[in-house]
Write a structure and sequence with these properties.
Oligomer: single chain
Number of strands: 10
Number of helices: 11
Shape: globular
Distance between the termini: 24 Å
Strand content: 15-25%
Bound molecules: pyridoxal-5'-phosphate
Amino acid sequence: METLNQQIVLPSSNISLCIKRDDLIHPFVSGNKFRKLKYNLFQAQQSNYDTLLTFGGAFSNHIAAVAAAGKIANFKTVGIIRGEELEAKVNENPTLKFAESCGMQLDFVSRETYRKKSETSFIQRLTQKWGDFYALPEGGTNDLAVRGCEEILRKEDAVFDYICCSVGTGGTISGLINSAGQHQKVLGFPALKGMFLREEICRFAQQNDWDLILDYHFGGYGKVNLELIQFINQFYKMQHIPLDPIYTGKMVFGVIDLIKKNYFPEGSKILMIHTGGLQGIEGMNLKLKKIKSPLIDYP
Ligand SMILES: *Cc1c(COP(=O)(O)O)cnc(C)c1O
C-alpha cells in the first residue's frame, strides 16, 4: 500500500519537510495500525482462527483498528478493555461505541487484572471464556507487526536524510529502522514517558542509525496542553492536514520545534510519518469540552 508524501510549507527555512499520509489508508484501520495488523491477520487466517482477541484503553486506536479490520476480514473480535467503570459509559465513548458497532465484544476488566494480561493464568481464563483466539498484544506490536511497518518506506523515500515518527510501543519505529537506508537517521518521538522503549526497540530493530527525542510527550500518554491544541489547530488551518493529539500532533510539534532550534543541518530533507489516529480526536474533544478547553479542529 503506497501513500502520498505531502510537502509542508515552512516559512523561511532551507529544510525540506514532507509528511507521509498513512492516515489516509482507512478512517479506522489507519496508519500504522493497518501496517501492524496486515501480516497478523494473514497468520490468523492461515492458522484457521475465527476470533481475534486484543487489549486496550478507553480511546485506543488499536482497539478501533482491530474491530474494523476484524469486521472486514470476517473475524469475531474481542476487546479486553482497561477499566471496569467504562462498561456503563460505552455510549459516551466514541471509540468503544465504534468497536461495538463493528461487532467487537468488549470485556471490561479492572486495572489490576489488566496488568496481568500477559500472564498464562489470565490467558487461560480468557480462553475458557472466549474459546480459542489469535491474540494481538496491546498496541499490536510483535514480529509480524514490525514486518508490516517495514513496508511504510518506499524506494523513493531514499532521498530523505531523516525519518521521524511517533512512538507508543515501538513497533512502528522498529519497522522504519529496519527498512531505512544506511544514510538515513530515524528519530522517534515517544508519546509517553518511558525509558523502557529503547530496550523494546532493540528487541525488534536490527541496526542502523536511530534515536529517541524525549522532550515532546507533553506530560505523558494522553496528556495535552493548550499549546499543543493550538499548534494542531494552526497546522490544520495552514496545511489542511489533521493531526491527532495523542501521537502525531506531538511528533509534528517536536519536529517543527527542532527545526526552529536548528537541530537539523542546513538543507536536510525530513520525512515525517503520519501514523493516523484521527479516530481518537472525538473522544479527546469530549474530555476537553468538560474542562472548557478549546477543542481540536478536524474535518
Ligand atoms: C499506535 C499509534 C502509534 C504508536 O505506534 P507504536 O508502533 O506502538 O510505537 C503512533 N501513532 C498512532 C496514530 C498510533 O495509533
